[in-house]
Amino acid sequence: MIRVSRTVTAALAVLTLTVGWPEAARASPQPAHTQRSIDSMSSADSISSAAPAAPREEPDGPLPAGWRITGTGAGKQLVWTSPDPVPMGDARVEFHSGDKLLGRPVATRDRRAFRLRLDGARIGPPSGLKVLAGGRRLDAPGARRAPDARRTTEAAQPAAPLPANPVDPGVPGTYRTVSGEYALKSVRLPGFAAPVEMRAVVVSPVGAPGRRPLALFLHGRHYTCFDAGGEQGISWPCEAGMQAVPSHRGYLRDQKLLASQGYVTVSISANGINGQDGEADDGGAQARSSLVRLHLAHWADWARDRAGAPAAVRAAPPADMSEVLLVGHSRGGEGVNRAALDSLYRPPSDQDGYRGPVRWRIRGTVLIGPTVFGQNPVPDVPSMTILPGCDGDVSDLQGQIYVDGTRGVSRGAALHSAVYMVGANHNFFNSEWTPGQAKAPAEDDFWAGDSPDPVCTPGKKTRLTANRQQAAGATYIAAAARLFVAGDDRVRSLLDGSDRRAPSAGPARVLSHAVGGRRTPAFLPDTSVAVSGGRVCAQVDPDPGRACLPPEGTAVSPHFALWETAREPGRHAVAMRWSKPGTAVRISPARPVSVAGSESLALRVIVPPNTGGTRLDVALTDTTGRRVTLGGARIDGLPGSDRTASYWGREIRVPLSATVRSKVDLKHVKTLELTPRNRSGQAWLVDAWGWRPGTPAVRAAALPRVDIGHPTVEEGDSGVRTYRVPVRVSGHHSGRVRLYVEKPGQDGADQRTVTVRPGSHVLDVPVEVRGNTRFGYDLTHRVFVKAVRGAVVGSHLGGLTVKNDDPMPTAEVKPVADRVTEGQSLRWRITLSEAADVDMDSVGFDILPVGQGAELSTLDVDESWLRDTFGESPDPARPLSEVVEQPYLWAGVPAGELSTEVTVPTVADGLKEPEESLRLRMVTYDDSWEPHQGPVFTGTVRDAS
């Protein structure tokens, strides 16, 4: 017992709760981690929007430190508060409960608190709550991921430097350069309230003859505004006293190198998109594509008529619009990928900000640390993706999907390269995001936590300085331009896994692998493949028994980047583990494969970071049973720690020599055999291809395009209405996609693979909406889609949101037993004016210190209740108002019911003591996120003796 003075009062309160946060992000209404095949379900089966049996929003126990639930009813939110501001970045911040995506929260202005409107979503066990951004854990104390053994040792030292490539694309050309800027009238883009700027910096060659190829740069998502005091913001337009962050000026080094080699370059500003893309389903990809194509349209005009062009454009040679390279950083990478897609396959007009003709040809894209929220790469436009090994923003290196996601989708002639740059971070590719170079405040995005990282802490041998990183970045951008635009095959070996280095990249260790080009698909693991000595594993699956890597571990592979769902069919690898040499793994596809005409067999194989000397013998067996060993290969792991995504496929090649061709029929290969020669280890086969040199001409296939819309409709007061999720199929011919449909109240998403063609209704997704006059949450039916073969996807995510249009019930609070003897329970009843379709947490109570007298302590209440409510032990004794910081009691009325009781069970302690009290204050919130204090209720407990 703890004595303090208090005053006893009792009251009756009637309160109308009309809270709600229209600016807050909303939770997914059901788990997103399980898919149930619906191949047998009719494509026209409807989804009912009648309120399902309401899932409990309350967590199954006390919330972890930093988490809280605030607000009530429709305004109820799950809030996580960081001890430090979370820097602005390109990766989306997401709330997860175990393997379930709860939703994507909205940050407060100071970027310390992130809030997610729950809309009926079930939180589940509190221990499963976590905050992720680009695969990195934000809420783990002291580190983004739990540390593992790899963190305690220095990174493995690399072998000897790779041989130098005969042609170095990083050597400046012979042209002097000239720079200038232009600013045009701002434009309006669908879904964005404020106009977006049309501003750019141009760097061009002086005296270059004829029309010159054009390289366009697009920066990523960063702070939009700053002031003289160092404050930064994400608003648009900038508020008074603030100026725009000049992110578009951050690629001048790259631009000058390309301009010296004869390219006209332009880097465009996208602050107006960065300031408004927080709730876009695609993260702003379509808006960025529109902005890119609006600039290209102007360049096409200026190439035809230079008289009306800005001075910076007139100072440049005319642009050759048939030779365009797009370069995008972070979300800008996803934006230029979408621009390349939209230039080949027209987007829906209501989603697009550019509606004119396409008067250019995209020859290739360069994607620097890109996001890929849609996982919808353009299969028939060559690409190079730079994966920064110390990326602290998009740290799962999800951009790998721009390579892996193109396999089997189209003809496969376009080269798609991944370039892993050891020691590079995310921000320093842009000088305006680099400390010491930027006009606005800037920082190193890689955060080492409480202890130095063996790979990425500045000063480590593997970590690149800003200058070295920028030199390497410029060199490889120039390599992509030289290969994709100029057609110089001599630089291909820098991008396609041929183990060559560019001297201009300096000491940077840069590795590459690729798909496409002149490769012939051979062994692409899937569930039809028979494997002995290993297993076919799922790249994305929450089941540790099926997953390639432990879902909750620190091992992270860019190849296994998550998408909208935590279990994704169609993505597999072959897992190998051995404890003695000679343990062969045999991989046999469902049908024989051909590698005839290839010079080598190219395999992409992952080995654990910091391991060296993994040796594999490679053999093939044909359909007649003849077997031949191709040779052996050594694979070294990348430098890595628990903060890096270093489980990355190294490309190895074994020759298909004349001797090999004489011993087996390479047109009818039945089995690939991999035999480890070292004592023990692990490896994962991503895929294997027949390889030969060269870069073929690429012609884009005529493919159907799929886009998902996302309208909002009113629930209505009565009747049943059927709406359809707008799934649009445009273009030509037919292809296959995998469609996912999430139903409110269902555990997981239904998925099916379907053939689509323009004009067909196979993707018809009807939703039944049942009107009523009872309060409920807005219900969102999410639909998302991914290309499988012979199709492309634009807007991958959409659905239908059914908006609640009924007022929240009023709540009446009355004491039932607010003066009791110890051993009895204090009780208050909350009664609604009418039942609701969802759980109603209509009243919440702060526990206040009493003013006079003795206060109930942790020893005066039931121990189980105390642990269940606050997660605290009764010892040491302390007032209930101090049991935790800001103690709060929720009072939830279950869906369909009219009342509930708040109960505080007390215990008889056998001690003679004065009356003790508990003081509760009602709290509600308005739609501006401001708390409003209500009446105070007091309970009194008499001594039993």
Question: How does the major sheet shape up?
Answer: 9 strands, mixed
N- and C-termini, Cα separation: 15 Å
Total number of beta strands: 55
Structural class: mainly beta
Helix content: under 10%
Verbal overview:
By secondary structure, this protein is mostly beta strands. The chain has a nine-stranded mixed beta sheet with strand order 14-15-20-16-21-22-23-24-25, sandwiched between helices. Strands 1, 48, 50, 51, 52, 54 and 55 form a seven-stranded mixed beta sheet that branches. A six-stranded mixed beta sheet has the order 4-42-41-44-46-38, with no helix packed on it. The longest helix has 20 residues, at 285-304. It is globular, with a radius of gyration of 30 Å. The model is unreliable at 1-45, 51-56 and 142-152 (pLDDT under 50).
